[in-house]
Amino acid sequence: MDLKDFIKEAIKDISEAIAETNSELLGVGTIVNPKDVVPSSKNEEVYGFLLKEQENQDYRRPVHLVKFDVAVSSATKKDGKEGIGVTVVGIKLGKDGTQADESSMSSRLQFSIPVALPVGKK
After folding, report:
1. Which residue has the higher pLDDT, 111 or 3?
2. Which residue has the higher pLDDT, 120 or 66?
3. Of 45, 49, 112, 118, which sees the most CB atoms within 10 A?
4. CA distances, 116 to each of 16, 17, 35, 51, 52 (Å)
5. Each residue of 49-94: pLDDT tens digit?
6. Average pLDDT, whole number, for the chain?
7. What is the b/e burial string over 68-81, where b = at least 16 CB atoms within 10 angstroms of the residue's CB?
């Protein structure tokens, strides 16, 4: 896979994951990659705050950055079979646990996604 295809596929997969997560958590109150975020420079723990009309102006809902560090590797074995694997936090996820002579290529992808978590109902 060349660099252009890798970038396209990574952005496509991240975008689809954000859309699917927002759909699945619609009733919970979590918003992945929310709009109307005011950046915060005062608190390093908080990326920013939601600025929505229905939100209480005295208590603005915090938006946190969820950081990802993913290693993606592809390999071609001596028998011509190709495989792809994803390593996240030292765990390798992939198909087929067999050992064989292979040539492999690894790419590292780091990104952050802003997330507004649900707030308590009090």
Report:
1. 111
2. 66
3. 49
4. 18, 16, 10, 11, 12
5. 888 766 665 677 889 999 999 887 766 666 666 555 555 544 444 4
6. 78
7. eeebbbbbebeeee
Question: For residue 52, with 0-12 CB atoms within 10 Å meaning exposed, 13-18 middle and 19 or more buried, which class applies?
Answer: middle
Alpha-carbon gap, residue 93 to 88, rounded angstroms: 8
Q: 32 CB contacts (<8 Å, ≥6 apart)? A: 18, 21, 22, 25, 113, 114, 115
For 17, the token pair is 């994951």
**Is the whole model's pTM more than 0.90, yes or no?**
no
Name the residue type at position 96.
D
Token readout for 53 is 């009309």
What is the percentage of the chain residues whose pLDDT exceeds 70?
A: 66
